[in-house]
Structures are given as C-alpha cells and as structure tokens.
Amino acid sequence: MSLHLYVDSGRWRSHLRRFMEPAGTTIVPVTKGNGYGFGNATLAAEAAALGAGTLAVGTYEEISDVQKEFPGDLLVLSPWRPWHEFAVDDERVVHTISRVTDLHTLIERGGGRPRVVIEVLTSMRRHGIDPAHLTAVADALQHVSFEGFALHLPLVGDHLAEADRLSRQAFDTVPASPRTLWVSHLSAAAAGSLAKHHDAEIRLRVGSALWLGERGALRARGTVLDVHPVRRGDRVGYRQRRARRPGSLVIVSGGTAHGVALEAPSPVTGTRQRAVAVAKGGLEAAGQVLSPFQFAGRQRWFAEPPHMQCSMIWLPDDITPPAPGDELDLDVRFTTTTFDHISWA
Ligand SMILES: *Cc1c(COP(=O)(O)O)cnc(C)c1O
C-alpha cells in the first residue's frame, strides 16, 4: 500500500522501440538521478533489451547502478575531473573531457588508452572546451581512444545552426577526428540534417523524450490509508488549523519522501506567468495549496503541506470519500519522484 507507478508495458515498450529507430541517427538512451522514476537499473535493462550499444549515465557514481544490467558501453555525461577515482582505462567507459588540462591529466594517469569524447562549449556555457582552443587538444588525442565531439545544446534558440557551426569548427581543427557527434536536445530531423552536412554519425543522447515520451502509458497512484470525517471547527494536522467546513480528511500515501508536491524551481519569464505565480502565492499565503491528487474528477486541496510518507487531503462533505485501500491518481514530476512500487501490466 504505497506510491505506485503503473506501466502499460506493451504501449510503453512499443513507443521505446519506435523512438530507437529514427533514420540515420543512433539513439543513446540516458539514465541518471532517480532513473526518471523507474530507477537506473530498470532503465539499464530496458536499454539492453532495446539493443542500444551505449547507455549514458549522469555521474561516475551511477555506473555501479547500471553495469550489471547493461552489457554495452557506458558514457558518463558529467565531465571527468582529476579527483574522480574511477579507473580511467575501463574498457566499457567513455569519459567526457571538457577542459584541456583534464585531457593531459587523464593521459598521465596512464594505463591503456582511455576512451574519450571531447565536449565543445556551446551557448549553454555549462561545460566544454572553447572551440577556439581545440588546437590545444589535437596532438594529445593520439594518446587516447578518441570517440568524437559532444555538444550539449540549450533548449531554446536555433539549435541546428549552432550545432552546425561548432561541428564544422571542431572537425576543421581536428581533421583526424572520427566523424562522430554526440548531441543532446536536437530533434531527430535536425540530427539527420547535421549528419548529412558533416558526413558524420550522430549519437543523440535522450532521456525524457524516450522514457517519458508516452505519458499515457504511465500512471501514478497513491493508496488511501485512512479517512476521517471532520466537522466545521475541528482542528487537524501538525498545524492544528480549524476546518472551515464539514467534510473528510483523506490520508493517502505519497509525501515529500517520495518527491510528491516538490516542484523544481522554474523560470518565470512572462508577465502572464508572473501573474499566475502571484495568484498561486496568494492562495498559498491564505493557507490553501492545491495537491497533485485527484478524486471524483478534480484535483483536491491539501489539508496541510505534505508529510514525509503521506499527504492529508481535504474533501468537502458533498463528496463521498474513497475508502482505505482505494487508490487516487496523482500528477508527478517523474525526475523527482521515487515510487515504492512499479507494476507492469
Ligand atoms: C541529462 C542529459 C541529457 C538527457 O536529457 P533529457 O532532457 O532527459 O533528454 C542529455 N545530454 C546531457 C549532457 C545530459 O546531461
């Protein structure tokens, strides 16, 4: 009796298979963090079943989550740094190098020929070697197994033009490079056109659009643990707030420990968005917060902010409450939710 993820596995897996086959592009599945709600080991096994040659993980620490389930190559997306103690010449691991000095340090660590991709700095300005400085790595690359350039593009703007310009610059500066580009956040069509322009193999690193791209196949539900009738004026919860109307209090599994009702900071840019945020803040200030749980066709209010393992939901008295053991649908943000149980149907 817990926070449950139900997967329509036929529908989900047929989406995965379709997604893996765009013409002229190799899809590199990405799993990291909470494994997009499924867990890294589960997605590693799915990636293996899909026949992926390479699986990307976020960090060196995540390699141990996936190495048993996935037999192929493992690309680490976080750039290698000298303080990482992971063996540099593990044959299955492809390192991302984003600073000139790190390439030299990696080579000095010795032992075989470490596999590396060189990340080129994009307009995102997160990690990467400035394309003007790529001449500084060209010679050193003969000491490693060089597997291509990586570009991590922002989510807005003219991706293709930027990817095109940076790829040209990279291939011109390091002509001996394998013609492989590891890119993120490009459409399959844009990736195909990049492949053609540069006569290159495109490896498209994809997480969300792959694992979460068929939302209708995924359903999150919390189990009702308790239901209490409440009279007007009764005190409830840690905060002992008084009920303003009669109704019922529904205690349902799914709380902050699962990541329920935790929102990632989101950019507020437009005037309208700002007005919405102010309105929401106003309701929150008045002590009312809409929960992600639904019942009888509507999203329901929290009686108070969620607790660690469960939430307290308010229902007005004109609604017949659910019974313990019933389940309520809820909206979750998959990249921050940990489910107690996954059911495959
Ligand atoms: C996480 C990550 C991805 C996958 O991101 P999604 O938005 O989930 O597809 C791709 N590339 C890099 C470099 C990443 O860190």
TrEMBL record:
Domain (Alanine racemase N-terminal) ranges: 8-212
Top-level lineage group: Bacteria
Pfam families noted in UniProt: Ala_racemase_N (PF01168)
GO cellular component, one term: cytosol
Keyword annotations: Isomerase, Pyridoxal phosphate
Key word Mitochondrion present: no
GO MF term list: alanine racemase activity; pyridoxal phosphate binding
Cofactor needs: pyridoxal 5'-phosphate
Name used for this protein in its record: Alanine racemase
Provenance organism: Phytoactinopolyspora alkaliphila
